[in-house]
Amino acid sequence: EIPPSSHYRLQRYPGLFNTTTSDEFLQSKMRSIFSGSQTALELFDILDHYSKNCDMVVGNKKLLHALKKEKFDLLLVDPNEMCGFVIAHLLGIKYAVFSTGLWYPAEVGAPAPLA
């Protein structure tokens, strides 16, 4: 959980996942991948969940309008969640990619956190 601070304002928006459901979903997929039982259908299920989650934000015109009014200078983007790049484009703002420290950086040979 992110602690409150006078230096930033934290606002959460509804999506397909919350912390618990996201962790459970990804852990089950990771078990399938590393056990060798991952099927193509399960892989598409992961992409389908991410797409639906992205659609909930991108399809919410009221939310996008409110975010645009904030006039953000920068959007931090998780490379494992591709929607961040789309949102940055729709809002017309620059983005910076950060590493979550998950298995993805190890697969591409990048240190985690990035140096």
Automatic annotation (TrEMBL):
GO terms for cellular component: endoplasmic reticulum; membrane. Keywords: Glycosyltransferase, Transferase. One of its GO terms (molecular function) is N-acylsphingosine galactosyltransferase activity. Pfam families: UDPGT. It comes from the Eukaryota. It comes from Micrurus lemniscatus lemniscatus. SUPFAM superfamilies: UDP-Glycosyltransferase/glycogen phosphorylase. Gene3D superfamilies: Glycogen Phosphorylase B. InterPro entries: UDP-glycosyltransferase (IPR050271), UDP_glucos_trans (IPR002213). Belongs to the UDP-glycosyltransferase family. This is Uncharacterized protein. One of its GO terms (biological process) is galactosylceramide biosynthetic process.
